[in-house]
């Protein structure tokens, strides 16, 4: 089997125009436009209830939109659902594998449902378990897997048919940092191998790690879009936090950084309660420069760290207001996930 | 967003390719039957209803109520009466489990995966029914085995005996569509069970399964005459005991089976397809 080719005009694997899906009074998706270029990752960033899951469900034929159009890999999601299902893979917020079946049996079943011969389905199941480091757990029921293993099995299941377009709906929500990194690595690998990915997330950090472009949505509408670095510049990059060994040196350190005249660094502020100096930076070079200056001055440092703006800060920067935490259909999915991971 | 980018995207022209052929469909059903069978292997407790129910019910009725119903010393005759009747009940009890199974499946993400795959959505339901028919046959075998231990005799021909099994299985399979529809319509497996019991109890006990209906009040006796379980029990009884009318109760039973399937199967499949 080879990866299906995409022949959408302009090299877009996903094109969405004016998509609308309401549930009674709740306008889950309220006129969304977006494009995903072939072979790239689009991050759809938004808080709980923003309409991310509803959007993905519309694009994967699980929901029929009320209005608007969406074409994925050249197929209309409403008029050509059967053809579309041959070209997509979906990994949801909670694992969509059969928990009573072993990892191997899950993958074998999916291979058979995708019309692989018995032999090919067996081979592909072994292959995918190997690739996702699950060979050892192949015979255990998925219910006994850890959260990260289950998510990896889920990704493996989505990849069996070599989909041209992959939807990842909050792939790391509820995972610990180590497992989250594993999932990120796997997604990056899929993209290197040519997959087009639409990724929804609540985390700016995840979007920065994985996405080429970002669409920020809130209350079912797109409120910002662009390349990740463009949006980051808009919201002010990162904050560098420096902790001196001696908290008494906070003010002197702040002064030194401010007077060093480093390129693009406007200033530094001392946070006496936290015992740190905060320096807004945009690039890694600036980080090095700040630390170098402090080193030359002989400061003893207990720790340095950088912080990305939180989703709230992004929203604040884009819209001038806090993000909505409205109850949408997604909050239900979250509960379901919590149930599964408990 | 500017007007220029608002133009509708162009899809490939032509119809929705990828209609699923009959051979692929059978292969999909096979893979899903394997899934359901493996689930049972993983969770053997789920077979308790098929394995233990017939044993418990037959012992309960023959030894606890049998004497009172049939008169002391008439145990043999009561076994001849009860076992064919219980074949009708088995189908209904097993069919109920389909509803809870479907409901549980839907609460898990795996159904989303099936529904985003290039398979006929009905194959998920058909595979479930195939496995449940298997369970029903196992339950019937255990019931008959217990019956033979307690002295059940096949007084009709062997073909008639097999016909009684086929008839009760066909009717049980038809009932499954009702419970699938119920399983897709209510929120929790517990609700499926609760509602199923409401239907089950009057149908089971307001019938000729456990006792002859002549002693019942007129309105109830009238109910038992249309009750498909009564008719199925009477037909199976006539087939196994080799006397009594077969055609009339068998036809009523089959009529019910066809009517139930014709009404609830399309509804269940449509519900399954459109469930969000």
TrEMBL record, chain A:
Pfam families reported in the protein's UniProt record: ABC_tran, DrrA1-3_C
Ranges where the ABC transporter domain occurs: 14-244
Keyword Nuclease: no
Main localization (coarse): membrane
Composition bias type Acidic residues, residue spans: 327-342
Cross-referenced InterPro entries: AAA+_ATPase, ABC_transporter-like_ATP-bd, ABC_transporter-like_CS, ABC_transporter_ATP-binding, DrrA, DrrA1/2-like_C, P-loop_NTPase
Family statement: Belongs to the ABC transporter superfamily. Drug exporter-1 (DrugE1) (TC 3.A.1.105) family.
Name recorded for this polypeptide: Daunorubicin resistance protein DrrA family ABC transporter ATP-binding protein
Organism: Streptomyces albospinus
Automatic annotation (TrEMBL), chain B:
Topology within the bilayer: Multi-pass membrane protein
UniProt keyword annotations, A-Z: Antibiotic resistance, Cell membrane, Membrane, Transmembrane, Transmembrane helix, Transport
Database matches in Pfam families: ABC2_membrane (PF01061)
Signal peptide, first to last residue: none
ABC transmembrane type-2 domain location: 45-275
Protein localization: Cell membrane; Membrane
InterPro entries membership: ABC2_TM, ABC2_TM_bact-type, ABC_2_transport, Nod_factor_ABC_transporter
The UniProt record lists the keyword tRNA processing: no
Membrane-traversing stretches: 50-69, 81-103, 124-149, 161-184, 191-211, 250-270
Family: Belongs to the ABC-2 integral membrane protein family.
Name recorded for this polypeptide: Transport permease protein
Annotated source species: Streptomyces albospinus
């Amino acid at each position: 089997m080879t990866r299906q080719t995409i022949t959408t005009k302009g090299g877009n694997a996903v094109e969405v125009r004016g998509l609308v899906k309401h549930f009674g009074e709740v306008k889950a998706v309220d006129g969304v436009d977006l494009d995903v270029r072939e072979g790239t990752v689009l991050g759809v960033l938004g808080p709980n209830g923003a309409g991310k899951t509803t959007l993905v469900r519309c694009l994967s034929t699980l929901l029929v939109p009320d209005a608007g159009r969406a074409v994925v890999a050249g197929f209309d999601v409403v008029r050509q659902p059967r053809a579309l299902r041959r070209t997509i893979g979906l990994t949801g917020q909670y694992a969509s594998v059969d928990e009573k079946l072993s990892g191997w049996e899950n993958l074998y079943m999916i291979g058979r449902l995708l019309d692989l011969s018995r032999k090919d389905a067996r081979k592909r199941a072994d292959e995918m378990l190997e690739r996702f480091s699950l060979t050892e757990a192949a015979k255990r029921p998925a219910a006994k897997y850890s959260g990260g293993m289950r998510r990896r099995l889920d990704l493996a299941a989505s990849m069996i048919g070599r989909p041209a377009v992959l939807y990842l709906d909050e792939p790391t929500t509820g995972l610990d940092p180590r497992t989250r990194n594993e999932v990120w690595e796997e997604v990056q690998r899929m993209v290197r191998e040519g997959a087009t990915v639409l990724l929804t997330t609540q985390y700016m950090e995840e979007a920065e790690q994985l996405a080429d472009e970002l669409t920020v949505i809130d209350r079912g509408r797109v409120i910002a879009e662009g390349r990740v670095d463009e949006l980051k510049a808009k919201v002010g990059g990162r904050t560098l936090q420096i902790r001196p060994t001696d908290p008494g040196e906070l003010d002197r350190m702040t002064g030194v950084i401010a007077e060093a005249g480093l390129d693009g660094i406007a200033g530094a502020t001392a946070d006496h309660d936290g015992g740190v100096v905060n320096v807004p930076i945009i690039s890694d070079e600036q980080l090095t420069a700040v630390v170098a200056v402090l080193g030359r001055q002989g400061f003893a440092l207990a720790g340095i760290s950088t912080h990305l703006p939180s989703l709230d800060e992004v929203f604040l920067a884009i819209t001038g207001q806090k993000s909505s935490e409205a109850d949408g259909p997604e909050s239900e999915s979250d509960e379901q996930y919590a149930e599964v991971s408990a | 967003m500017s007007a220029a980018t608002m133009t509708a995207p162009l899809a490939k022209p032509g119809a929705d390719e990828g209609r699923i052929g009959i051979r692929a469909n059978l292969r999909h059903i096979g893979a899903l039957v394997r899934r359901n069978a493996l689930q049972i292997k993983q969770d053997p407790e789920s077979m308790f209803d098929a394995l233990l129910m017939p044993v418990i019910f037959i012992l309960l009725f023959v030894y606890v109520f049998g004497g009172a119903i049939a008169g002391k010393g008439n145990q043999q005759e009561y076994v001849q009466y009860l076992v064919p009747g219980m074949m009708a009940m088995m189908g209904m009890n097993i069919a109920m489990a389909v509803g809870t199974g479907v409901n549980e499946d839907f609460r898990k993400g795996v159904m989303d995966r099936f529904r985003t795959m290039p398979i006929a959505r009905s194959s998920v339901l058909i595979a479930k029914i195939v496995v449940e028919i298997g369970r029903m046959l196992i339950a019937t075998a255990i019931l008959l085995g217990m019956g033979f231990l307690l002295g059940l005799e096949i007084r009709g021909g062997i073909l008639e005996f097999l016909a009684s099994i086929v008839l009760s299985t066909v009717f049980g399979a038809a009932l499954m569509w009702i419970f699938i529809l119920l399983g897709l319509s209510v929120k929790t497996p517990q609700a499926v069970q609760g509602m199923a019991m409401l239907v089950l109890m009057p149908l089971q006990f307001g019938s000729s399964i456990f006792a002859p209906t002549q002693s019942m009040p007129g309105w109830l006796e009238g109910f038992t005459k249309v009750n498909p379980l009564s008719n199925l029990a009477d037909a199976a009884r006539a087939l196994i005991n080799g006397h009594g009318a077969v055609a009339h109760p068998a036809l009523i039973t089959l009529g019910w089976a066809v009517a139930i399937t014709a009404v609830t199967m399309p509804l269940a499949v449509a519900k399954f397809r459109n469930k969000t």
